[in-house]
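--- STAGE predict ---
source: upstream dedup step, 1 unique chain passed
mode: sequence only
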Amino acid sequence: MTRRLAHPLTRGLALDDPRTTEVRKRIVREKPFLRRIYEEWYAAIVADVPDGAGDVLELGSGAGFLDEMIPSLISSEVFFVPGVRVVLDAAALPFGERQLKAVVMTDVLHHIPRVADFLEEAARCVRTHGVVSMVEPWVTGWSRFVYSTLHHEPFRPDAVDWSFPSAGPLSGANGALPWILFERDRARFEREFPQWKIERVRPFMPFRYLISGGVSLRALAPAWTYRAFRALEAALRPAARATAMFAHVTLRRS
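--- STAGE serialize ---
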């Protein structure tokens, strides 16, 4: 089914090929339904960024356009992509202590194979009261079905370890990792990373990203239906913990 729905621009491209990220950047801009989803995600993230001194680092910037909303953004990727300012490893950030006021990302944390190292590095680089703000996949009854049957990335809510083998910068993943960190293993997270306070976990968006086709599939509905689906999701908000596919998570540096 997913093969028939595959976006024609991505056919034949390997996930870990930088050209795939460039193609996805074009898809995000040319699919109005999907672009509006990104705009909504970015608005939530921008609202988290504190005022005052410090840089804002985005991880996994290649396919996005957050730099249009944060002009001084330090965009980054794990490989060279045109328009990205820094190539880096999230587990070894090339910044000084307290240099950043925020680290932000969309759909990136679950691709970091040594996430504990990233959290330590972010704690070193982010100033007191700064944030890590992200939109990531989430685990619910509905999302388990979608991510396990319709999505290409590994999705293992039962994983014992937070780390996973680094098969490749994009192909290596555990889509359930954010939920494992901030929900299932929250007590462990708070014990091992007292530098970070989990300020927000907001599960949301059960249908719209799926309907948009994301960056890999064709859209399942025209752009003019966006408001209707957003209204439907608003009505279903009380059931978000059973239906959400994503969560907006905010960590505050203590």
